[in-house]
TrEMBL record:
GO terms for biological process: branched-chain amino acid biosynthetic process. Residues 86-394 form the Dihydroxy-acid/6-phosphogluconate dehydratase N-terminal domain. Signal peptide: none annotated. Coiled coil: none annotated. It comes from Agrilactobacillus composti DSM 18527 = JCM 14202. GO terms for cellular component: cytosol. Keywords: 2Fe-2S, Amino-acid biosynthesis, Branched-chain amino acid biosynthesis, Iron, Iron-sulfur, Lyase, Metal-binding. This is Dihydroxy-acid dehydratase.
Length: 668
């Protein structure tokens, strides 16, 4: 490498084209003399900048509408990649941004576009990139808010997002814009390959080859074709898909906008219609605080339960509620709603039939599910939505709409699937054995609680009374790396084992996602007979007897960090009544009661192998410290600024007092 290799092949004609002046835009700023004198200089200069970018001068005074997105990569007009993004979920979002912008322009407004792209949790599985995953959400929400405030003339904000962290970050930012009109455009779902595996299953090809349960040739073929279209979130109801349906259920997105097939005309039309809604909100005076209310948050939680959504929304919905200055849902709120609301949707990863999420869209999506919940009297129908109408009015329209009829009809035409097999009535769901989504086991290992997607425990390991029971000695791992290595080594993990992965909470890894482990257990033939306990979190597509979010985390002195190889652990999950226990009950030679077990764990030191991962970034260490002051994972990992400031001030006072006392001692 040398300067010659870099500059040596330049075309010398480049220098002949250099100019230092240009005529500048034609026209004049559309301002009266009085407006020019009284307006802030920034507002006037903003028009100058817009004219400089080529906006027609006579139209500079239209309503400014900001379009934020998580767009990533660079896509040519013909669709081929100039530079790939970090995932498909943001690669095609520019098409939705363009559709929204064109409509705003047609309506006389001035569209602005700004971008904060997002990482892929699938891409970072098993790598140090996962240490930035959850912390990124807070950072992105901060940048989104700063961008919104950096356009003082904005009249409304449209957010376009699809995936695991960019989507909740976007909604956190929108929710904090209490007095502005805001609309969310869900980024949709990628298509399934005609023959092949979904993007969740395909992430296990390595561990299946290692265990001789998949051939190398099949693995590399399946791995190439799993993402059958270039855009959209994964084909299962993971965090991306769950976020889309939940935030539509909150009223922040148009009816029947979540999970649309990315890149297709109906998906682009959603962005165009959302621009109309945002413009109408400007003129009607409807703002975000009118839409995101305590009742709207509860509706979103009901949609989460009815779809059987990702446990990661236990982190994101509370964060959105906090941003909106509302009641932050507690474990008790989640448990109550999951007991009241039946699961009605049959898609990946819960089943009972593993349909892709695009099927749920064609079957009617969120409004179809809401029709069933309305008949049960569960919904808050009087909440306002971005349509300018109440939820009840939206559902009245949906029930008789051509959109509903034609989409459901299309599913039967192209795939021969009855929409009522994908989105079921409560009676049909009960007959098919669908159980509610989430259980929150507690016990001497998890005194602050834990979470398990109980609906996704393999039915064959649940007793006839609907209760999952698993008791036996544990195998302890102080990192996910060690745990996945054991799963890839034949004979290290066997039928009946209980794996304990400690040190995966916020202070250890930024609360990493352990889909490497849960997906392997899902796909390995013996995996349904293995339980997993961790203070880390799970991917939305995770299934199985996996207990996460153990609190307190190991590095906060939590009992999980005191467990040892050979300890006997008892796991009980009532999948019908949604109650569970997770307890240390001694050893093979010395069984103890739950209370005695708690005392033993309290007296033990922290496992010597537990500590922050040596590669944990300083950024994530800071995030972990700040979110712990705000209430930690069960409060949504938010930054409670008042509490953080109070804690810092108290610390400074203590340090100043200590310094003063030391100086006094030295002076004597």
């Amino acid at each position: 490498m040398s300067l010659t290799s870099i500059f040596g092949n330049e075309d010398k004609k480049l220098y002949d084209t250099i100019q230092t002046h240009a005529a500048g835009p034609a026209g004049t700023l559309p301002l009266t003399r009085d407006e020019l004198i009284k307006a802030p200089s920034g507002d006037v200069f903003g028009m100058t900048l817009n004219a400089g970018m080529g906006w027609q001068a006579s139209k500079l005074a239209g309503d400014d509408v900001m379009i934020l997105s998580t767009l990533g990569g660079m896509r040519a007009e013909d669709g081929h990649p100039i530079a790939v993004g970090l995932h498909t979920g943001h690669f095609e979002l520019g098409l939705q941004v363009k559709s929204a912008a064109d409509k705003i322009t047609a309506l006389g407004g001035v569209p602005y576009a700004a971008y904060v792209t997002d990482p892929c949790d699938g891409r970072t599985q098993g790598t140090t990139g996962m240490f930035d995953s959850l912390p990124y959400r807070n950072d992105a929400a901060t940048v989104f808010r700063r961008l919104i405030r950096s356009l003082p003339t904005r009249k409304a904000v449209i957010g376009v997002a699809a995936c695991d962290k960019g989507l909740p970050a976007m909604v956190m930012a929108l929710a904090s814009m209490h007095d502005l009109p805001t609309v969310l455009v869900p980024g949709g779902a990628t298509l399934m390959p005609t023959i092949g595996e979904d993007a969740g299953t395909v992430q296990t090809i390595g561990v299946r080859v290692a265990n001789h349960e998949l051939s190398y040739e099949d693995a590399i073929r399946l791995g190439c074709q799993a993402c059958a279209s270039a855009g959209g979130g994964c084909q299962f109801l993971g965090t991306a898909g769950t976020g889309q349906v939940v935030f539509e259920g909150m009223g922040l997105a148009l009816p029947h906008s979540a999970l649309a097939p990315s890149g297709q005309p109906i998906w682009e039309e959603i962005a165009k219609d959302s621009a109309v809604a945002a413009t109408d909100m400007i003129h009607s005076g409807l703002t975000t605080k009118d839409i995101i209310t305590d009742d709207a948050i509860e509706n979103a939680m009901m949609i989460h339960a009815a779809f059987g959504g990702s446990t990661n929304l236990l982190l994101h919905i509370p964060a959105v509620a906090y941003a909106a200055n509302l009641h932050v849902p507690t474990v008790h709120d989640w448990a109550r709603i999951n007991k009241e609301v039946p699961r009605l949707v049959s898609v990946l990863p819960n089943g009972p039939v593993y349909y892709p999420t695009v099927y749920a869209f064609l079957a009617g999506g969120v409004p179809e599910v809401m029709l069933h919940l309305r008949k049960l009297g569960l919904l808050h129908e009087n909440v306002m939505t971005v349509t300018g109408q109440t939820l009840g009015e939206n559902l009245d329209w949906w029930e008789k709409s051509d959109r509903r009829k034609l989409c459901r009809q299309r599913l039967e035409e192209i795939d021969g699937i009855s929409p009522d097999e994908v989105i079921m009535s409560p009676d049909q769901a009960k007959v098919r054995g669908l159980t509610s989504t989430i259980t929150f086991p507690v016990g001497n290992i998890a005194p602050e609680g834990s979470v398990i997607k109980s609906t996704a425990i393999d039915k064959s390991v649940i007793d006839d009374d609907g209760i999952y029971r698993h008791t036996g000695p544990i195998k302890v791992f102080t990192s996910e790396k060690a745990a996945i290595k054991a799963l890839k080594t034949q004979g290290d993990i066997n039928k009946g084992d209980t794996m304990v992965v400690m040190g995966g909470g916020p202070q250890g890894t930024g609360m990493e996602e352990t889909y490497q482990l849960t997906s392997a257990l899902k796909q390995l033939s013996f995996g349904k007979h293995v339980a997993l306990i961790t203070d880390a979190r799970f991917s939305g597509v995770s299934t199985g007897a996996c207990f996460g979010h153990i609190g307190p985390e190991a590095l906060s002195g939590g009992p999980i960090g005191k467990l040892q190889n050979g300890d006997i652990v008892e796991l009980i999950v009532d999948t019908i009544n949604l109650e569970g226990k997770i307890n240390f009950i001694g050893t093979k030679d010395q069984p103890v009661s739950y209370e005695e077990g708690a005392e033993i764990l309290a007296s033990r030191p922290l496992h010597p192998g537990v500590g922050p991962d040596p590669d944990l970034p300083d950024d994530t260490k800071l995030w972990a410290a700040l979110e712990s002051v705000g209430g930690g994972t069960w409060k949504g990992c938010v930054y409670d600024v008042d509490k953080i400031v109070a804690t810092i001030n108290a610390g400074k006072e203590a340090l100043d007092k200590n310094k003063s006392e030391n100086l006094t001692v030295e002076s004597k």
